[in-house]
């Protein structure tokens, strides 16, 4: 689809002059060399209110960001995998309380870290099984090697799991490797951002009998008309280059090692971070969620399922600051709970944001982000390729800029 504004902002409750502040703000990031290029999409009542962009999708080649530029969305893959799991739940093929060992026998007897070093950890048996719900909510006790906050993180790195997976291992083999590593904590005891959604992707494969890419395509992408989304693209001219900060200059430097991701089919289909997409495609996905699981008369999920996913599942409706480990994640912890695949805004005042209670959202490692605001009937997407996403405070800045322009 063509990505262009199709309603007067005033008709949708926005001040056009104030919306321009989005473009002015991110243009400064490009002008001073802190971002290569960017694209922002604001939608309300199903209409595109603002589409802004600037800079280059490939600085060295002098190629500008275009509406159809392709982006590595990294962890914005997670909500798609979560939707895939809930499709299977709606069909009665799995339940949220099911032990995942029902499909992944390698997880039949997980062990939990107690104390010790990464080289000589002391572990104990898990007191209960890892359940599907634990994977969806990042409460399984799994982790990421890139956290650098716990001996188990170091065990992951030693096994080849830091920013990717060991060469030659497909998702099934990676799942077996993850199952052999100790958990950080007893399943359900805490929240920790992790490879849980990758394991969930493997559950989707086994339950459905399809490789993850085929399930995504047949059950989500094709029905929604998401023609640009997949684990790689052959249209590499449209794929933005990937950059990292350059501490020496305060600018950015190209990283072709990570930039090779998305240019060929990966051995491991990462449901936690493997997809390439366009702003138009992901807008359709977020609109489906905003509409309660349906878009253009194509129903992916029921409204009750989407509502359950967008509810805070942390015990007692606490926020991530109270229940999570204070490590890197794609959203702030204060005032935010977590649902089935998304952060959920519980307390805008505590989060110090203009956004609405009930907003659900997530982002990707290369500084992409989206949110869905059911209260105001808004979806927003932001796209760039700067790794890691913690480099700048792009997401809270974008929220401030969007909501200060909402005047109705």
Automatic annotation (TrEMBL):
Source organism superkingdom: Bacteria
Principal EC category: hydrolase
GO MF term set: hydrolase activity
The protein's Enzyme Commission number: 3.1.1.103
Pfam families found in the cross-reference section: Beta-lactamase
Keyword NADP: no
Every Beta-lactamase-related domain range: 22-400
Family annotation (InterPro entries): Beta-lactam-related, Beta-lactam/transpept-like, Diverse_Enzym_Activities
Keywords, sorted A to Z: Hydrolase
Protein name in UniProt: Serine hydrolase domain-containing protein
């Amino acid at each position: 689809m063509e990505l262009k504004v199709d309603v007067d902002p005033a008709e949708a409750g926005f001040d056009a002059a104030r919306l321009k502040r989005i473009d002015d703000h991110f243009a400064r990031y490009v002008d001073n060399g802190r971002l290569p290029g960017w694209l922002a999409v604001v939608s309300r009542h199903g209409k595109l209110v603002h589409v802004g962009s600037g800079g280059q999708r490939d600085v060295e080649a002098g190629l500008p960001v275009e509406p159809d530029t392709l982006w590595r969305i990294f962890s914005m893959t997670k909500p798609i995998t979560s939707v895939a799991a809930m499709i299977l739940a709606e069909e009665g093929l799995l339940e949220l309380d099911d032990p995942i060992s029902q499909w992944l026998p390698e997880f039949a007897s997980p062990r939990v870290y107690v104390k010790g070093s990464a080289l000589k950890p002391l572990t104990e048996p898990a007191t209960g099984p890892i359940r599907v719900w634990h994977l969806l909510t990042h409460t399984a006790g799994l982790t990421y090697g890139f956290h650098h906050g716990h001996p188990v993180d170091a065990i992951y790195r030693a096994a080849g799991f830091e920013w990717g997976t060991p060469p030659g291992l497909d998702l099934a083999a990676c799942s077996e490797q993850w199952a052999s590593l100790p958990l950080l904590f007893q399943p359900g005891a805490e929240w920790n951002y992790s490879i849980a959604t990758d394991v969930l992707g493997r559950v989707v494969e086994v339950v459905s009998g399809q490789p993850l890419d085929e399930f995504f395509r047949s059950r989500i992408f094709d029905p929604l008309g998401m023609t640009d989304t997949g684990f790689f693209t052959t249209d590499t001219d449209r794929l933005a280059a990937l950059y990292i900060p350059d501490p020496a200059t305060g600018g950015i430097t190209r990283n072709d090692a990570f930039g090779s991701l998305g240019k060929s089919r990966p051995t491991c289909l990462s449901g936690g971070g493997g997809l390439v997409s366009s702003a138009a495609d992901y807008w359709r996905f977020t609109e489906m969620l905003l509409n309660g699981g349906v878009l253009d008369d194509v129903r992916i999920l029921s409204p009750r399922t989407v509502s359950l996913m967008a509810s805070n599942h942390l015990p007692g409706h606490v926020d991530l600051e109270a229940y999570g480990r204070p490590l890197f994640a794609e959203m702030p912890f204060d005032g935010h709970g977590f649902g089935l695949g998304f952060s959920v805004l519980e307390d805008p005042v505590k989060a110090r944001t203009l956004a609405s209670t009930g907003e659900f959202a997530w982002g990707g490692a290369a500084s992409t982000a989206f949110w869905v605001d059911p209260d105001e009937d808004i979806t927003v997407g932001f796209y760039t390729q700067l790794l890691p996403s913690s480099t700048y405070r792009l997401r809270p800045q974008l929220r401030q800029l969007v909501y200060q322009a909402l005047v109705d």
